[in-house]
């Protein structure tokens, strides 16, 4: 859904920037905890799980807000291939933001690990499934990081080179 207007709804902007901060924190925490056998490993894993659950809740809210309020239309002079890339990259970002915490939750379930907030297991205890999900979680984290970098680069192109209002639509309501 797209809407008329030049700016995203204020709630869309708030969710975007809050999730951007949490995703960056999550990526740094995730990288820090891999291979860390120090006493802080348990703390990092706990933080990672809680941020993951927060991101799952926020992405569900964000999807609802996006469906309700839509997004500003892309500039009319944007080439068709760039329009397609913009839509595809946003679909990919939403898919990854939804999949990553669900895979993490499934991974904890399959590994028999405790799930924060006493949430139920999504999957049965199965160490082979755990291994597959752990590998998928890692590779999808790399894909998420790459997609975020492309998203950031595109935003900077729109804001600094094209100056077409796309970046401004997520920065402020004015």
UniProtKB/TrEMBL annotation:
Its cofactor is heme b. Keywords: Cell membrane, Electron transport, Heme, Iron, Membrane, Metal-binding, Transmembrane, Transmembrane helix, Transport. InterPro entries: Cyt_b561_bac/Ni-Hgenase, Cytochrome_b561_oxidase, Di-haem_cyt_TM. Its main location: membrane. Residues 8-173 form the Cytochrome b561 bacterial/Ni-hydrogenase domain. Coiled coil: none annotated. This is Cytochrome b. It comes from Pseudomonas fontis.
């Amino acid at each position: 859904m797209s809407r008329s207007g030049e700016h995203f709804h204020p709630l869309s902007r708030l969710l975007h920037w809050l999730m951007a901060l949490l995703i960056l924190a999550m990526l740094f925490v995730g990288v820090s905890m891999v291979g860390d056998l120090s006493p802080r490993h348990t703390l990092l894993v706990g933080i990672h799980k809680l941020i993951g659950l927060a991101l799952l809740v926020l992405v569900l809210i964000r999807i609802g807000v996006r469906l309700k309020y839509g997004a500003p239309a892309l500039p009319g002079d944007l080439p068709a291939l760039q329009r397609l890339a913009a839509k595809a990259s946003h679909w990919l970002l939403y898919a990854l933001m939804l999949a990553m915490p669900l895979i993490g939750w499934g991974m904890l379930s399959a590994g028999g690990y405790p799930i924060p907030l006493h949430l139920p297991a999504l999957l049965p205890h199965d160490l082979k499934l755990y291994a597959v999900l752990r590998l998928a979680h890692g590779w999808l984290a790399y894909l998420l990081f790459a997609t975020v970098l492309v998203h950031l680069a595109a935003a900077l192109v729109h804001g600094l080179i094209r100056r077409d209002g796309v970046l401004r639509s997520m920065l402020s309501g004015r």
